Amino acid sequence: MPESLESLSAKINYQFSNIAFLETAMRHSSWTAENEGFESNERLEFLGDSLIGFVVADVMYRRYPDFDEGKLTDLRKIVVNSTALSRVAIKLGLGEYVLLGRGEEAGGGRSKTSILANALEAVFGAVYLDSNSQRAYDVAARLLTDSIEEALTALKQLDAKSQLQELAARLERPMPEYRVTDEGPDHAKTFFADVFLGDDLLGSGTGRSKKAAEELAAQQACAKLQTS
Hints:
Layout: H1 2-11, H2 20-25, H3 29-32, H4 42-63, H5 69-79, H6 82-92, H7 102-106, H8 113-130, H9 133-143, H10 145-158, H11 160-170, E1 176-183, E2 190-197, E3 200-207, H12 210-227
Antiparallel strand pairs: 1-2, 2-3
Helix pairs in contact: 4-5, 4-8, 4-9, 5-10, 6-8, 8-9, 11-12
């Protein structure tokens, strides 16, 4: 195991002083259930999860100073989830290093999203314990860079309000103005949004939240502007 983990250490571009931390990071609980006397990667996973959340939030806060809290939160959600983390794990080939119990092995555990994401979190936890917070930050930030860039692209595609604002500026039109009303009891409100560019009503939307209604209105407005 230590010899094979040297290649994994090279993939993450970090040389462990104590390779035992990385060994622990690769032990899934299904394996330790069948092999007494070994610690699973669950505690390291907990540590790595906290580290990832901080690193991603910090990188985004510094890199995108114009993003408000809502957009930063949306961006972080795209990066810090099992699906996104598992894609990073797949790029590293993490599945081939994970130790699994017989049942998980037979059930295709090496390609399971949750197992791969948890193993990646454990790797970051292992780096932290083997070095220090700054070194662990650097490793995580580097390995998650592509995910952050991909998330920004996805957010732009999903965020119709940002698209509309950029489109209006490019066409030298007035900036969008949203007028929102609601009806119904507090626990089950329905929101209605109209978006104007100057005096022109370009889109309307209805949703269970103000944000959802505005997004639908912005999508409609974008479509009109792009076809006019």
